[in-house]
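Weekly modeling sync, notes
Attendees: S.R. (lead), two postdocs, one rotation student

Agenda item 3: backlog of single-chain predictions. S.R. asked that every request posted to the team notebook include the full sequence so nobody has to chase files. The rotation student volunteered to paste the first one in as an example of the format we agreed on. Action items at the bottom.

Example entry:
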Amino acid sequence: MSTTPTTIASTTDASFLQRLRGQIGAAVFLLVRRFPLLLRIQRSEHSWSAFRLLLGCFGAALVILPLSFWVGWVTGIVAPIFGLVLFVASILLPPPETESDTDRKARELGATTMVSGGEYQPANAQAVPARLFISGAHIWALDKNFDPLVVIPTPEISGISVESDETSSLLRVRWANHNAEFLYDGIFAERFANLAEESIRAALPETAPGPLKRHATTS
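Predicted structure, as returned to the notebook:
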């Protein structure tokens, strides 16, 4: 599957709450990337149950103990409220997810890395959020329903670049006579674009030209 050069336009009608949720989601994603132990805990039934139990006990302690050691409004009011939030969160946290839909799709495609693809705009269509599933054979840009937006043959990639300004970053991937562009918005835009670039470079074959492999890192 190939695509013709397109110009990506970010949707401007997203509500404040949608943008806030997107930023929180991006922060959580980067946190998991930085501390993969968090993801391993969530994927382990015993570890996740222990984490929820500790969170609930800590929250309950913050509610009960200040009643015996009243010092001020911080320990007497704020701490119990924060403890109640933690206790409720420990109850509402979802059960451990040993394998997500994303994991199953990655295994199906043979992808070794999955990163955010920002927004991708298919020809004559609206820009939609994309996720990049990366392997040494192909790079799949999929939408939220795991439908393909564009498939890039990894060995045929001839150029990768990231262009950033104050509010957004654009990842451009070139192969054969085609060009795919992925637009990242928000405070994590440049970080996500660079992460995608590094992941793609790491998947390139060893025979790729030096300029393409120079920033390759292990994901």
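Discussion: group reviewed the output briefly. Residues 1-14, 215-219 have pLDDT under 50 and may be disordered.
Action items: rotation student to repeat for the remaining queue; S.R. to check formatting next week.
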